[in-house]
Amino acid sequence: MFISVPDEKINIVKSLISKLKELSGAEITYDENTKTFNVDSSQNPYDAMKVISVIRAIGLGFSVDESLKLLSDDYMLDVIDLKQSVGSNPETLRRIKGRIIGENGKAKKIIQEYTGVSISITDHFVAIIGIYDQVQIARKAIELLIEGKEHSTVYKYLDKAEAELVYLSKNRSYNLK
User: Fold this and answer.
1) DSSP 3-state assignment of 83?
2) Which of 67, 120, 146, 148 is 20 to 30 Å from the Cα of 98, by its Cα?
3) What pLDDT does 173 receive?
4) CA-CA distance, 154 to 110, in Å (whole number)?
5) Where in the numbering of this chain does the K Homology domain appear (predicted)?
6) Which residues of the chain are modeled with pLDDT < 50?
7) Domain co-membership, 16 together with 96
8) What domain range is 80 assigned to?
9) What is the pLDDT of residue 129?
10) CA–CA distance from 31 to each of 18, 41, 150 (Å)?
11) In the prediction, which pLDDT does 172 show?
12) pLDDT at 169
């Protein structure tokens, strides 16, 4: 499986190859000509997919530490391509990213705090790293902002969704006994 990252992220990923090999057992090589990383999936396709997710996350602007969480079965990467939602008009993309970030980063920060996820916003991608249930809540909140919903509506959704998640997790733990 081949994956590329922006030029400014290549050295970061190259410096991680041995650590990724050690942690995952996957064979990883870098092709200088095509500027792509090759992750051999013949031995263990599942671990290879995890390594691909780590490399992709770094390419999407996440820190190395945040990206390495994707080697755990508990974490996932979800990516929203804003061009698919709102088109490729630069002004529209700028406006939508501004809504997701919020004034002084407030909206992004609130979504992250409510859900415990990490969010990275690049040219036309919004990427989320976190535990599955929290990622789904964060994604829905971001989609509501993309649709043009008021920030207060999104915050109410987050409050309700997190309360439901806490309720469900408590009931699951009781049902397991």
Assistant:
1) helix
2) 67
3) 55
4) 10
5) 74-147
6) 175-177
7) no
8) 75-176
9) 99
10) 15, 17, 46
11) 66
12) 76
User: 128 with 134: CB under 8 angstroms?
Assistant: no
SS3 (DSSP) at 177: coil
At position 9, the amino acid (one-letter code) is K
Tokens of 119: 């969010």
Residue 70 has what DSSP assignment?
A: G
Same domain assignment for residues 33 and 19: yes
What is the token pair recorded at 14?
A: 């190259």
Measured CA distances, 34 to 12, 17, 30, 146, 171 (Å): 17, 17, 9, 35, 51
What single string gives the DSSP state of each residue in 92-136?
HHHHHHHHHH-GGGHHHHHHHHHH--EEEE-SSEEEEEEEHHHHH
Q: Domain check: are 98 and 61 in the same one?
A: no
- Tokens 């469900």 locate to 168
Q: Is 3 helix (H, G, I), strand (E, B) or coil?
A: strand
